[in-house]
Structure formats: structure tokens, C-alpha cells
Amino acid sequence: MHLLIIEDDFDLGMALQQALKSEGFTSEWLRRIADVSNAINMADYACVLLDLTLPDGSGFDLLRRWRKQELTVPIIVMTARDGLQDRLDGLDGGADDFVVKPFAVAELISRIRAVQRRYAQQSSEVWRIGELEIHPRRHLVQLSGEPVELSRREFQLLQELARDAGSVVAKGALSQRLEPLGDPVDFATLEVHLSNLRRKIGAERIRTLRGIGYMLVK
Prior knowledge:
Layout: E1 2-6, H1 10-22, E2 26-30, E3 47-51, E4 53-54, E5 57-58, H2 59-68, E6 75-79, H3 84-92, E7 97-100, H4 105-119, E8 127-129, E9 132-135, E10 140-143, E11 146-147, H5 152-163, E12 169-170, H6 171-178, H7 187-201, E13 206-209, E14 213-216
Parallel strand pairs: 1-2, 1-3, 3-6, 6-7
Antiparallel strand pairs: 4-5, 8-9, 9-10, 10-11, 12-14, 13-14
């Protein structure tokens, strides 16, 4: 799972990246609103951690702009402001959750997992899609109650499709999500991983829309 951190405090930014890495997340870290260029594809991120007080503007404004653009990526607001109105403004402005500094990193990780569950329309830590059960934290998959042995890449691929189960994930977006900090996985290799995954969970569960992308059938 790949996250975007927008936080100007150097020590906190470093600590967040280290904590996320220890939990198996990858992340990119920006320190100013100006660093959020138009070239950034927000669909590449599973969640955004957004500070409200930035050197060159308000995180509130960035949050509202994203929601006005109909970006659906989960956003957790981080701020030292602990007033009720600030929390209400953040949630009403489109934030999915709100944490007040200083916070325990373990709590933030838990909130990241919670907003991801809601985004994937899952009600518990175990994601259920038909007869498939996905355990994101344990990197386990079961089909009709039986364990399915997946490689790291196959599990990553299944989880990315599961985030948008029932919707098409573009081939280019999927290849980038598999290698968020490097060159996208080439399409030939992607097809090999998809073929292996289909063989293990059932070909009918992953639908190809030729020239567009792939969909995990709900």
C-alpha cells in the first residue's frame, strides 16, 4: 500500500516514513503545497496524510480543492489544532479521519487501515469478496475457507484489485501501484502475474476489459 505524506515538520515526516515502512507501507513525503504538482496522479495513493498548517498555505484549501475535483482517495488530516470546530471543518471539508498532534503512531496506522477498509467497502479487518477472504495485515488469502498460496507480487496485485472490487483498474495504474517508487511493472510481466493469480483463485474472478484494465468481480 502506497501513501502520500504532506507534512512540513522534518522530524515528524522522517518518523512517519520509518513507521510506515516497518508496517509494510511505501510512502512519498512532500513538505509544501507547492510540491503537489499537477503531474502527481492521486490514484496512485491508497491514502493521504495531510497536515493542515503548511509553510505556503492551508491544508484545508488543498483538501477542498481535491474534493472539488472529485478525488476519492482517503485523506487523514493531521493537525495540532484540537478545537471541535477545526475537526468539524476538516471532516465537513472532505477528510475521512482526523488525528491531533501529538499522536501515537500505532493509532495512526490503525486509522489508515480503517479508512482503507471503508474505501474498499469492507466492514472488518478481513476483506470478503465473494468466496475470497483477504487478510491484509497477515498477507493471507483463503478461498472457500481453504488457504491460497500467493507470491508477494500476486498478493499485492490481488489487494490492489480488491481496493476497487467491482470497478475497473486501468492497466497503467495497476502496473504503477505494484512498483510505486520505481519504474512501473511492464505489461508483459503484469500479464504473467495476473495469469498466475487467475489460476490460483479462479479465472472468472478477474475480468479483463481489453485495452482498458482489469476488474475483480464482486
